[in-house]
Amino acid sequence: RSLKIGMLPADGIGREVLPGAKAAILALGSSIPKMEFIDLLAGFEYFTKTGTALPDETVQILKSECDCALFGAVSSPSRKVTGYSSPIVALRKKMDLYANIRPVKSVSINPEGRPGVDLVVIRENTECLYVKQETQTVGEHGKEARATRLITERASRRIGELAFKMALERPRKHLTVIHKSNVLSITDGLFRETVRAVPTLPGVDGKYDDVTVAEQLVDSAVYRLFREPEIYDVMVAPNLYGDILSDAAAALVGSLGLVPSVNAGDSFVMGEPVHGSAPDIAGQNIANPLAAIRSAAMMLRHIGYGDGADRIERAVDSVLREGKVLTPDLGGKSKTSEVVDEVTKRI
Ligand code: NAI
Ligand code: MG
């Protein structure tokens, strides 16, 4: 069986870390027969040249030829740019990658990092405020801007089902539902109720009896994440809260450059480091490639190459444990490429 992997480095350090992910997969050698990497275009820089951030061809090739994909990072400007819209947000929707799974775990090399963090943020990936239906009008008192926030029962149920499934697979089997339904009782209320109702769905038949369920308002969830991160195991959240919580959780373990994710749907998976394009360090060969490499491992595990994923993760863990070859975000002096070489050698 051959494996075709779509590669979308996009912008900034995305282009520096994705080659590391590729090198790690290639280092697995013949344990994965007939690997093929297909380079695909997307990103803000591509938009500035062509007027489109995500060409139809990229989506078409992903759908028709690729078994899975890896995305680097995109440089989405904070100002409004006419005609531009984030390709990663669009890809998640177009490929129906409805879940963004972001594991965050303590690493021993970071003396300032919190020990005992071992959690997964499961972020709904297709709706909430990220439907991007924004309007601006002029009212009596000047400009007025509005955004639609969409929460559906269908999307909340499928993310809830995934969250329960993941909680059941983990040793602590604990799930925290994140919301703000004390204020947004209709939208967050629907999310909360739908997720909590998963164990009562037809056909579940007590499967989730061992999962303990808690809930936490998103603001106090951030507070507790910093005070007592050990209490969390699986956290499930609507899109925006999940985005913010997972960056916050990354700070606990030392660097955004360590935290991987996959965007998963029922028929496709795309690995993606949680971090962005990091313009402050781009082009210097100092970006931490480990988040991208771990994302590659997560992607492989998702499509059934668990052994390969284990080998990559063990290599990353041993590089971290030894603590000699690290990029500056972890207090080291090594280059991106040196960390990649160290990991591939160990694979
Ligand atoms: P960012 O994640 O790019 O950077 C935040 C901070 O973390 C920076 O100081 C950066 O140097 C550091 N950092 C991030 N990844 C690192 C790595 N691998 N190694 C070492 N240090 C790392 O977030 P920021 O600065 O808010 O956004 C920059 C751009 O990235 C924006 O245009 C934003 O739209 C985009 N972005 C894209 C995402 C994606 O493609 N999924 C996600 C988040 C932001
Ligand atoms: Mg983010």
TrEMBL record:
Residue stretches making up the Isopropylmalate dehydrogenase-like domain: 4-343
GO CC entries: mitochondrion
GO molecular function: homoisocitrate dehydrogenase activity; isocitrate dehydrogenase (NAD+) activity; magnesium ion binding; NAD binding
InterPro entries recorded: IsoCit/isopropylmalate_DH_CS, IsoPropMal-DH-like_dom
GO biological process, one term: tricarboxylic acid cycle
Keywords: Magnesium
Record has Magnesium as a keyword: yes
Superkingdom to which the source organism belongs: Eukaryota
Protein family (similarity comment): Belongs to the isocitrate and isopropylmalate dehydrogenases family.
Protein name per the record: Mitochondrial NAD-homo-isocitrate dehydrogenase LysB
Species of origin: Suillus subaureus
